[in-house]
Amino acid sequence: MNPAPSVIIFSVLSGLGFGLLAWLGLGFPAVTGWVAATFFALGFALAVGGLISSTFHLGNPQRALLAFTQWRTSWLSREAWLSVSALTANGLYALGPVFWEARIAPLGWLAALLSLATVFSTAMIYTQMKTVPRWRHWTTPALFLTLSLGGGALLAAQGEAAAILLLIAGGLQLYAWHHGDSALARSGSDTGTATGLGPAATVRLFEPPHTGGNYLTHEMVYRIGRKHAARLRIISLLAMSLLPAAMIGLLYNSHLLAGLAVLVHLAGTFVQRWLFFAEAEHVVGLYYGLRASPDQSNPSTTSVKRATGNGSRS
Question: What's the rounded mean pLDDT across residues 19-36?
Answer without folding.
Answer: 96
